[in-house]
Design brief:
The chain is mainly α. It contains nine helices and no strands. Bound molecules: beta,beta-carotene-4,4'-dione.
């Protein structure tokens, strides 16, 4: 179930993937304890998060789309250097920043696609540990590994 959910999630369009991640965060929010995501871990991602905070909404969305689409940008390469857990913590923090109004929101009334809604349902049926495995895999595949050739 973990492997197939990961595969269908990654097969969605870039925007659908962003939307599914956002809705997954809003559903899981309370079960993820901020302490657990590790302050030390986030320090490594802090430079990237600060860069995002200073961008316009359009640029913020572009950076996120680039990460999901694995476009080779400076930002995607810097992201690629983070550990898998730090990548997931980065997305968690990004979602927190969205909730606080520092990052571009999902447009009000936004309708997720059928495919996106289906993946979200599948994800919700997994237990918490499995959800984290899927999310960590998806986050770890994003961006670009600057050390690969
Ligand atoms: O205009 O380290 C659209 C623990 C449409 C502990 C859009 C853990 C068009 C150890 C594309 C929708 C296991 C707890 C706009 C970690 C349009 C540890 C915008 C786990 C504007 C890390 C879309 C942590 C946007 C976990 C802006 C489980 C979408 C973390 C943005 C989970 C989506 C984190 C974002 C999750 C989603 C984060 C930022 C699920 C982030 C999701």
């Amino acid at each position: 179930a973990v492997a197939s959910t990961t595969a269908v999630l990654k097969a969605l369009s870039v925007d659908d993937q962003l939307a599914v991640l956002w809705y997954a965060y809003t559903e899981m929010g309370r079960s993820i304890t901020p302490a657990a995501t590790g302050a030390a871990r986030l320090q490594l991602a802090e430079g990237l998060l600060n860069q995002i905070k200073q961008m316009s909404h359009a640029e913020q969305l572009e950076v996120m789309r680039d990460l999901v689409a694995q476009r080779n940008t400076q930002f995607s390469r810097a992201y690629g250097l983070l550990s898998n857990n730090t990548k997931l913590a980065f997305w968690y923090e990004l979602a927190e920043l969205m909730a606080k109004g520092f990052v571009v929101p999902v447009p009000p009334g936004y309708q997720i696609s059928r495919d996106g809604a289906q993946v979200l349902e599948t994800l919700k049926e997994l237990d918490f540990g499995q959800q984290i495995t899927v999310l960590r895999k998806v986050a770890s595949d994003m961006g670009v590994d600057p050390l690969a050739d």
